[in-house]
Design a protein that fits this description.
CATH superfamily of chain B: P-loop containing nucleotide triphosphate hydrolases
Low-confidence stretches of chain B: none
Number of helices of chain A: 14
Order of helices and strands of chain A: HHEHEHEHEHEHHHHHHHH
Number of strands of chain A: 5
Strand content of chain B: 25-35%
Oligomer: heterotrimer
Shape of chain B: globular
Helix content of chain B: 25-40%
Low-confidence stretches of chain A: none
Number of domains of chain A: 2
Mean pLDDT of chain B: 88
Strand content of chain A: 5-15%
Largest interface: A-C, 111 and 113 residues
Strand order of the largest sheet of chain A: 2-1-3-4
Order of helices and strands of chain B: EEEHEEHEHHHEHEHEEHH
Number of strands of chain B: 10
Chains: A alpha/beta (about 375), B alpha/beta (about 240), C alpha/beta (about 375)
Chain lengths: ~375, ~240, ~375
């Protein structure tokens, strides 16, 4: 036992000596949560709008005022030629152009109807859709107030309620995903590379020849990362809470337990990868492409699984992160108890056992 | 062959510090053109540090050093054209073939195609590597790799070749052959600066210096040193010096 | 023989002798381009909806049929029990609940106005915003439908109506995939360029062969160019290959001048590879490098606007993007491919990139030390 602790201590010293990696190790969650919290957002804000007012009357001027004072739109340029729309889009100066038709006010008064064209640069389809919706909303509101009659008959008013996330903060979605990603990164990637490194440099042979048992060597290599990963998980939860008010509605203890389970899973995956890779480069490519990318893409972290084609949805079921994210969302954001997540927990547990078994088997083969 | 008077390496009060640790403590010596100069010492005595400075891989902290007539502070690139180097870490490309390695270094030293073809042929012939010239370095035995690495280091006929523990991990027969190659190199006018901790190899050197803890404790012909320290071989000389 | 030529031969031989390289260059990108483009779609399909109908009127039925007829919505469950629907929301079985309260039709008919409740699972705020937008569109349609049905015509008299004509340029079908694909291509080219270049140099350092190179009279710039050029060629090739795959699989539009795109890409790649080299000059082991590179890559990519528009980012983030090369290329590739922007449209990006390339390459060359 004493020998084992000595070994673990050595591994810790290894990690702590490399200050740069350590800084990134702890800085990564902070930077990521800030990026996702503030930067990765679809929110409509300061959209550059081009205005082509063919009429230049009181109503159109007022409508333009309304658009620009809504807080969502900023005037890019006023134009008076068809070709200018194209050049606004091509230079990326505007995302949308609002066109008021000729004698706008007159038509409105005489014929009771007038047209506004909203031309969007739809190369980014989602933004275009959102911009359209917002602009239509702003314009509809304005013309409602213009209406002397006050109300349009038979109007259905929608009252939307944003459940679990009343403020519609993007970071709610990302906290669970970030935990899944960062824990996977540190646990699987780092362990697989450290172990392969010892193999590549031949120091593994040295360790194997020592009185330490193979089991102890692997455990010793893995232990520091368990701790680092756990600290990181807690950092993310804490930052989410302090900076973005992401709550932990459910049981914190349950959440921590599930984190430990997931960390164990990721570590056993890392060990498994190291048993099949000969060089560090190989371990990295395995971990990066086989683990990181799928974790980011197929776990429902950024992109909803429901939108994917069937085969990818099926593929996502073998991603541990997918299940972990469901668990974290349930505990943190919905506040549900174990009754709602026992199935996911069981799946994670099963995967962990599978990976450990496979790793042990591979390791023994290598020793023979 | 020795032209006794010309100093091809001139070192005066060379100091190299890493923080507070003094790796080379005021080394002063010179090497004559055409001789085999043995640079002896235990592991960690400061041999590699010194050789790296002479090759221009590392800056000295202070001291006056000239290699092949050039100053190591300002004329490192000129020095590099006149030297060859073989490090203790094996330095050929594992994923290139024997022939590709030779051609790579030959190209780096700007030999022309004709020279390269001619010398490569000769070299492979002499080392008996012709049949495996298209084999990857990683697939050939260590002894051959060492001999090839040395040949590559002198392929461009440098004035001086620096060998940093060239015979580490090699069997006695190959070591013997290796020293024969070193001897042949001096016949072509190449000065050899070699570090080693095999004391028997010191006997093959024209002169040896013995370093202990960053300092040169003795420097002379092997025979003179043996007499001075009243020892039957260099090993005994070294042990006597190291124990003090 | 020319030193540079000799070194280049050596690099190319080593790269293509590595069994790993061919899959990295050919297989992985194709898989990524296929999987990523489909997976990374923020396109809303099949919004799962639970309907709580407590009115049972013709109006409520009409409203429901508007939703079930929409390609975006799928009605998973219909009930009159609100709690039952909420439970489904909690279990993630549905994304949104449409709650039609008692007296919906009556109020609408008599009071001219009625409420409709929408409960959206907003854990994913972006998705929730879109769900809400789609619902609004359908209900706006429902409103005019009701007016037409009940009144027989558009309301007349003093009430004015506004006709809004939406137009979607460059992508009238609102296909999200082509937008995503071009972004993924940028990630791919950046990732392969930066990572391979950086790993290559650090690997030589770790193996000790740089030592041997450093005692030779090779000039720093010769060495750096020899390390850079092969991966530059590979990355450019990768871009061409990716465009071809995009053309075949997704009918990727190429409105603009491909020559201009490649010209910009060439300069961009010098920046990216330069950063890769720079990172490798400050790292000693592959592990260290990988971690640092991963950190930079993920930050660059997320901030580049690949998934979400740069305009939506806070001011400080947009300022950081001035030094984010990926943000420039992300913008330019989409402008050229999808909108057909010409040189004068991207001249600012073009010159910035050139300036950047000079700085980063100088930095990489000066930071590479032959002597320690």
């Amino acid at each position: 036992m004493k020998r084992f602790f000595g070994f673990v201590k050595k591994e810790f010293q290894h990690i702590f000596r490399d200050v740069r990696t350590l800084v990134i190790l702890f800085g990564l969650p902070v930077v990521m949560i800030i990026l996702f919290g503030y930067v990765v957002t679809n929110e409509i804000k300061d959209v550059d709008v081009g205005i082509w007012d063919k009429s230049r009357d009181q109503v159109s001027t007022e409508a333009i005022q309304k658009i620009l004072s809504s807080g969502y739109f900023v005037l890019a340029e006023t134009i008076d030629h068809e070709e200018e729309i194209e050049s606004l889009f091509k230079s990326g100066k505007a995302k949308v152009v609002v066109v008021f038709e000729d004698s706008f006010e007159k038509r409105l008064l005489r014929e009771n109807r007038a047209a506004i064209k909203l031309i969007t640069d739809a190369s980014d389809a989602n933004s275009a859709m959102l911009v359209q919706t917002y602009l239509q909303g702003v314009l509809a509101n304005y013309f409602k107030s213009v209406n002397q009659a006050g109300t349009i008959p038979w109007e259905v008013e929608i009252k939307s309620r944003m459940f679990y996330n009343e403020e519609m903060t993007g970071v709610y979605m990302f906290v669970p995903g970030l935990m899944a990603l960062i824990l996977m990164l540190i646990s699987a990637l780092m362990t697989s590379v450290t172990i392969t490194r010892e193999k590549e440099f031949g120091t593994m042979e040295l360790l194997l020849a020592s009185p330490l048992r193979p089991r102890e060597i692997i455990l010793g290599k893995v232990t520091p990362y368990v701790l680092l990963s756990f600290i990181n998980a807690m950092t993310i939860i804490l930052l989410g809470f302090l900076v973005f008010d992401v709550p932990v509605v459910g049981s914190l203890w349950l959440l921590m337990l599930e984190c430990m389970l997931y960390i164990t899973l990721a570590l056993s995956l890392g060990v498994l990868i190291s048993t099949v890779s000969k060089t560090q480069q190989m371990a990295m490519v395995f971990s990066m492409l086989g683990l990181m990318l799928p974790t980011i893409l197929l776990s429902g972290f950024i992109f909803p699984i429901d939108n994917m084609p069937g085969i990818l949805q099926w593929f996502s079921t073998i991603m541990p992160a997918r299940w972990f994210i469901v668990v974290v969302k349930n505990i943190m954001l919905k506040g549900t108890g174990f009754a709602f997540i026992w199935k996911e927990t069981l799946i994670l547990l099963g995967m962990t056992l599978l990976f450990i078994l496979a790793a042990v088997k591979r390791f023994n083969i290598r020793l023979e | 062959m020795t032209v006794a008077s010309e100093h091809i390496i001139e070192v005066k009060d060379m100091v190299k510090k890493f923080g507070s640790f003094v790796a080379n403590d005021r080394l002063t010596f010179h090497v004559y053109r055409g001789e085999i100069f043995g640079f002896l010492g235990a592991n960690g005595a400061g041999k590699t540090t010194a050789i790296r400075i002479l090759c221009g891989l590392s800056y000295p902290t202070s001291g006056e050093i000239r290699v092949a007539g050039h100053d190591v502070y300002h004329e490192r690139e000129k020095i590099k054209r006149k030297i060859g180097y073989m490090s203790q870490k094996f330095s050929l490309y594992e994923d290139l073939t024997v022939s590709e390695n030779i051609r790579l270094y030959a190209g780096i030293y700007r030999l022309n195609r004709k020279q390269i073809n001619q010398r490569e042929e000769q070299l492979l012939e002499r080392l008996g590597l012709l049949p495996i010239k298209n084999r990857l370095i990683r697939d050939i035995p260590l002894g051959w790799k060492q001999k090839l690495a040395f040949s590559v280091a002198i392929f461009h006929k440098p004035d001086i070749v620096f060998l940093d523990e060239p015979t580490g991990g090699v069997d006695p027969i190959t070591r013997r052959q290796f020293w024969e190659m070193i001897h042949d190199a001096t016949q072509e006018g190449i000065t050899v600066f070699v570090t080693t901790h095999y004391m028997d190899e010191a006997e093959y050197c024209d002169r040896v210096s013995i370093m202990v803890d960053g300092r040169i404790e003795a420097l002379d012909k092997p025979a003179v040193l043996k007499k001075k320290f009243d020892s039957k071989d260099m090993n005994e000389v070294f042990l006597k010096l190291a124990r003090n | 023989m020319n030193i540079l030529y000799t070194l280049l031969i050596k690099e190319f031989k080593q790269i293509f002798r590595n069994r790993f390289m061919l899959p990295v260059i050919f297989v992985i990108p194709v898989v990524q381009m296929i999987v990523l483009t489909y997976a990374a779609s923020l396109e809303m399909k099949d919004i799962r909806m639970a309907v709580v109908d407590q009115d049972f009127s013709s109006a409520s039925r009409l409203l429901i049929s508007e939703f079930s007829g929409s390609p975006f919505f799928e009605i998973e469950h219909q009930t009159s029990n609100y709690d039952e629907a909420m439970d489904m929301l909690g279990r993630d079985r549905v994304d949104v609940i449409l709650h039609i309260q008692h007296n919906f039709e009556k109020k609408l008919y008599i009071e001219y106005e009625t409420d409709l409740q929408l409960v959206v699972n907003a854990i994913n705020a972006t998705e929730a915003g879109l769900v809400n937008a789609y619902c609004n569109q359908i209900i706006t349609g429902f409103n005019s439908q009701i007016r037409a049905d009940w009144f027989g015509m558009e309301p007349s008299g003093t009430i004015v109506s506004l006709e809004i004509i939406p137009e979607f340029w460059y992508n009238p079908l609102l296909d999200y995939k082509i937008y995503m694909f071009s972004g993924i291509l940028v990630i791919l080219v950046t990732l392969i360029g930066m990572l391979l270049t950086a790993l290559n140099l650090v690997r030589e350092k770790e193996m000790g062969t740089t030592e041997q190179i450093n005692v030779t009279p090779i000039r720093k710039y010769q060495f750096i160019i020899a390390k850079l050029l092969p991966f530059w060629v590979i990355a450019i090739f990768e871009l061409a290959f990716g465009l071809l795959v995009g053309r075949i699989l997704y009918d990727l539009p190429m409105v603009g001048d491909l020559g201009l795109l490649f010209l910009f890409a060439s300069i961009y790649l010098f920046v990216v590879l330069g950063i890769g080299l720079f990172l490798s000059t400050i790292s000693n082991t592959q592990q260290q490098l990988m971690f640092v590179a991963f950190f930079f890559m993920i930050t660059f990519i997320l901030m580049s606007g690949v998934f979400t528009p740069v305009d939506s980012m806070p001011r400080w983030a947009q300022q950081i993007n001035i030094i984010n090369p990926a943000a420039y290329f992300m913008r330019v590739i989409r402008m050229i491919l999808l909108k057909g922007s010409g040189f004068q449209d991207i001249s600012r990006e073009f010159y910035s990139m050139g300036f950047y390339a000079v700085i980063i390459l100088t930095l990489a060359v000066t930071n590479y030390r032959k002597t320690t």
